[in-house]
Structures are given as C-alpha cells and as structure tokens.
Specification:
The model has no long low-confidence stretch (mean pLDDT 87). This protein has helices at 2-5, 25-36, 47-54, 58-64, 79-84, 93-101. The chain is 45% helix and 0% strand.
Length: 102
C-alpha cells in the first residue's frame, strides 16, 4: 500500500491491510445472499473426499496448499492501521462484494 510505503514510521513493522470488521465465512455467504437476493450454495466436503478428488482435479491440487488456512475463519484485524491512518477510507465488505458480484 502506498500510504504505508510513504510513511517512514511504518517501516519495519507488520501490517494487516485495512479491512472492514472481521467476518466469518458464514457471514460472508450471508452478505453475498443479501446482495444477490438469493441463496448462495455452499458445501463443506470431508477431508477424505477432498483428498480423493484432488488426485483427479488440478484445481483441487492447487487448493491443497491452502487447506490448513481454511480449518478456521481467517479474521483480519486492522486496528493498528486504522489507528495510524484514521482518515483512510476503508471499503466495507458489503461495498466490495457488491462491486465483485456486479
């Protein structure tokens, strides 16, 4: 992000990029359903099923490296960024999903 790169006091630190309040995967699906005004199908497959499918599907093989990440919700907390850059406008998840889904 340019704002961090142009702020010398931000150097040599770890930053979570600015994001809306934390949302679980379930909440993200619910927000998408509200925006689309229809049900969004989501299904969780068992790990043994995933392992079987990945043998035949290149896309699933690539997803395999991400699997540990999805064992729990990825909640990004950007309070540090918000405190350091209070005037930075953060796009809400609703705005972002609306743009992507349009």
């Amino acid at each position: 992000m340019v704002v961090i790169a142009n702020t010398p006091s931000a150097y040599n630190q770890t930053w979570h990029l600015p994001c809306d309040k934390p949302h679980s995967y379930k909440e993200l699906r619910q927000i998408a359903e509200k925006i689309l005004n229809k049900k969004v199908k989501a299904r969780v497959i068992r790990e043994w099923q995933f392992n079987l499918i990945k043998s035949f599907n290149k896309s699933m093989q690539e997803l395999n490296e991400l699997l540990p990440r999805y064992r729990q919700d990825n909640l990004f907390i950007s309070d540090k960024f918000k405190k350091q850059f209070p005037d930075f406008k953060i796009t809400t998840i609703e705005e972002g999903l609306s743009t992507v889904l349009d």
